[in-house]
Amino acid sequence: MRRFLFLGSVFLTIFLLATLSYAQPKPVYGGSLTIAQGVEPPGLDPTTATSAAIPRVVYGNVLEGLVRIGRDGKIVPALAGEYRISKDGKEYTFILKKGVKFHDGKPFDAEDVKFTFERLMDPQITIPNRRYYQDIESVEVADSHTVKFKLKNINSMFLFNLARPDSIIINKQTADRLKTAPVGTGPFKLVEWIRGDRVILAKFEEYHRKGLPYLDKVTFKFIGDPSAQIAGLKAGDVDVIGYDVSPENALLLEKDPKFKVLNGYTTTEVILSTNQTRKPFDDVRVRRAMAHAIDRSALIKGAMSGYGTPIGSHMDPGNPYYIDLTSAYPYHPEKARQLLTEAGYPNGFEAVIKLPERFIYARRTGEIAADMLSQVGIRLKIELTEWGQWIDRVFKNADFDLTVIGHSEPFDIDIYANPKYYFRYDNPKFQETLKKAEMEPDPKLRRDLYVALQKMITEDAVNGFLYVLPSIPTMKKEVMNWWKDYPMTAQDVTEVWIQK
Amino acid sequence: MTFRRSFRNINFTIGFFITLAILLTALLSTVFTPYDPNRMNLSERFQAPNQTHWLGTDQYGRDILSRVMKGSINSIVVGLVAVSIGMGFGILFGSVAAFNRRWMDEVIMRVADVLYGFPAVLSAILITSILGPGAINSMIAIGIFNIPIFARLTRATSLSIWERDYVTSARAIGRSDAGVIRKYILPNILSSLIVQGTVQFAIAILAEAGLSYLGLGTQPPHASWGRMLNEAQTFMGTSPYLAIFPGCAIALAVLGFNLLGDGLRDMLDPKLSRWIGR
Q1: Which of A46, A163, B250, B267 is deepest in the core (most CB within 10 A)?
Q2: Which residues of chain A carry a pLDDT beneath 70?
Q3: Do the Cβ atoms of B221 and A371 come within 8 Å?
Q4: Distance between CA atoms of A157 and A139, rounded to whole angstroms?
Q5: Residues B49, B53: Cα–Cα separation, whole Å
Q6: Closest chain B residue by Cα to residue A372
Q7: ipTM more than 0.85?
Q8: In chain A, which residues have their Cβ closer than 8 Å to the Cβ of B44?
């Protein structure tokens, strides 16, 4: 028996060692990585524009915040080594890391933090997501490496907001260059941005996380056409396609031993956005009828070859407050027709759905949704809309009946509290509850409030809640340590290395 | 020149039969397609060509044969309307320019030159982005860029005819200007207009496919060859037949109309007639 135990433990040890060494091959330094990205950022400043293409290049690579979101979706320290929250929840103290340098050689200290947040609160500068900072009362420099944030009231989202790309730390001397040649504290510094083609980054030798990064050079190449991206990957010009791999191509590349396809989640909720102010969509019965008319699993199969996770409200399953509401409106065309009849549309009605031409997922989802809705009598005329026009007409001026789009910001249920947001949902009860949730210090009660919020918009069937976009980053087999899930809008390559 | 004799021209013969086949398919598709071309059937996606779906099914399980058939009527209608717009206004402006040799000629021809200077598809994109996407707007757009082509042709061919004695005598006995144009000018330039019309028809089909490919032409779910090509693009690796059939349809249609135009020119243009006099 003893011998058996001994042998057993030997085997176990060998087995464990073997799996450990297999699971964690030793990272290799050096090499250059080329990442294909579908959309070129309009500028490189993530604070003054909301395009997701910006953080996908710079966030975590060139620019960093006080805290960041780790691979598991949790908040981890970044430029702040540690932080303390006062008992009343209104004071945040950040102890900054020492020995951190900006790419221009300037040492990072508390003044930079003060400058960054005062800029974000400066009414003279257009900051699209100013709501993240509206509860800050003051930013005080306690000593060269300690910063105190005083809040007007408790804001449970405050720390999370500091982990967003909007909250990256900059210094005063280089702030005006942020849009074209950002200078940050990240593991890579900007070498060149060749407009219309690529952004080139090089390793920052004095990066503050010891031993990182592994790569010498990172290139973001902007290739709009998905087929050209795939061709680039196959030809070896591209090492990674981080976003926008179409599911059918992922399936194809998965079979090829030269490539690997990771299958994770993103925070992009794809919804059938509904203009609440337009008839007949102002009637909740019509919106509920639409929810009953859409078969999510068939839609995900048809539009995304089965990739993608169904949702029943505006929250991604990676969020700690997520609850599954997908069974609130089961697929039931008969019930949909009945609801339409109750609402006074026994023969259905006609409407227009504007689909952003650029996004394949949105086009396909919209086409299938239109087909499903036509079966209960809602006849949709599809209009493919060029992206600039979509932004202008649909997003800015709410000139639409229906559209399909993915909302990529994490934790963005608060958009439903803004009655001016493009789908024009105005529910005072929701707005009040959200305020309460954001000010609730007790995690359990806060969770209850966020659950109530999710239920509220599902109850009102505000938009057609469809699915969360999959992240299917596709790369050469040699690329190691790429993020499988995207809990934050970014393509952080700090820990990525290339196997020789 | 009899109808039978014209089939001695090989270009005309091939073009004629291809065009005829496409026209018949287009007509047929208005009353019959094997399946509803727009109805999705998500349980039958990506079927390779087989006995029930002769050309296979697309990413939404729609029958490709039905969609290619429906796409032909779309192309023919776009071509017809666009060429009619171009010919109608082109002949009008061209005739006016040839008749009034003074300032009107200058104005019309300079405007035509400017329009002519734009690449055809570019101006169509410009026009559809102003009018908004859609099949009707793309017809208008393609029609508009056809106008200067017919205007220039009409003016150039009718100028010399205005100098002819029979036109002068017709005017002398008091025929109205419009009457002269209708009775003497147009019949004389008709053959070149028809030849140009056939060639423009092919270009219009190609332009419509291009616009739909870019999302500016026919809107989904309606079948259009260009749109089908666009949608097939990301499936090239897995289901190439999605692109092959609409692609062949476009190539065939363009080839057919071009050959027909070539053949007609050989037959109708006396300067080029190598065989007519034999």
Answers
A1: A46
A2: 1-24
A3: yes
A4: 17
A5: 6
A6: B40
A7: no
A8: none
